[in-house]
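Hi, here's the filled form for the chain we discussed.

Project: internal
Contact: R.S.
Residues: 171
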Amino acid sequence: MSAKLPLVFALHATSRGFSYVAFEGPFAPHDWGTVIVRGDKNAVCLRRLEKLLDRLRPECLLLEEPKSVANRSDRIARLYKAIAAICATRGIDLAVYPFRDIKFCFRSVGAATRQEIAEAVARQIPAFDYKVPRPRLRWESESRRMALFCAAALVLTHYQLGAQSLLDDLC
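And the returned structure, exactly as it came back:
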């Protein structure tokens, strides 16, 4: 029987709720899903997140820096601050990555846009392959499923940059 690896949990908030993924290793998804909320979105998101944290007990929570994306709302920035407070009270490590770090990590596989990054994530994690949203037309809004891939890209970025920082520490 092998030892259980620490769980890494990533969340990507949207105007309708959030998507999340939990990984036990770089290519080992443990759980994922999308939460759609109504009413006081931040309060409901935080309650749902607390239930997920109680169930999954992650060691680390990952977020994309809200200021690194031009159209992120102030509500999401407030939500992320509240999530940071929850992490602090629960002793969960919090890592926040700007989108430029995600793009940097996926550049080696030729992915620069969110759509290309989602396709690259699906190639690396077969469990997500059937969920890749089709490329949107210019006048269409982004697919709800894209948030799941944003969260998964955060996890892969975290593992790649974490491995890089370990190598830097050794050299």
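Let me know if anything looks off before we file it.
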